[in-house]
């Protein structure tokens, strides 16, 4: 609901800025081309509809906890894919910041998968 209000406030309060920037010449406003509209539509369908459908299906097959925790692993897995497929090199500082983000979700996911009850190995 928060992001809905962010969009609503942007729609109601920030649109006069488009007119101001356009007519003062700081930023030229033009409508997207047909090709750009096609890309926006494909991105919306694949990036939003398909990903939401797959997440809900995963929650249906497992649980909402595992679905949400698996969703939080997309960022570390995309980092790994960049390293393996694109040969991207990250500095040690990047990994030092990624470890605190990755560790809690991976520990909780391993706890949710390996145990049958609600207790984990650290409980």
Automatic annotation (TrEMBL):
Swiss-Prot/TrEMBL keywords: Membrane, Transmembrane, Transmembrane helix
Major place of residence: membrane
Transmembrane spans: 6-24, 36-58, 64-85
Native source species: Mugilogobius chulae
Location of the protein in the cell: Membrane
Taxonomic path: Eukaryota, Metazoa, Chordata, Craniata, Vertebrata
One GO term describing the cellular component: membrane
Domain of life (superkingdom): Eukaryota
Signal sequence interval, chain numbering: none
Membrane topology per record: Multi-pass membrane protein
Protein name: Uncharacterized protein
């Amino acid at each position: 609901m928060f992001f809905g209000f962010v969009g609503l406030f942007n729609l109601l309060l920030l649109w006069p800025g488009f007119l101001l920037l356009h007519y003062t010449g700081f930023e030229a406003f033009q409508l997207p081309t047909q090709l750009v509209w096609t890309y926006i539509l494909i991105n919306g369908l694949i990036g939003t509809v398909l990903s939401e459908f797959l997440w809900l299906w995963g929650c249906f097959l497992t649980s909402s906890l595992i679905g949400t925790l698996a969703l939080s692993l997309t960022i570390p897995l995309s980092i790994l894919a960049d390293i393996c497929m694109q040969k991207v090199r990250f500095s040690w500082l990047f990994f030092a910041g990624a470890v605190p983000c990755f560790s809690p979700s991976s520990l909780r996911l391993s706890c949710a998968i390996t145990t049958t009850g609600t207790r984990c190995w650290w409980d």
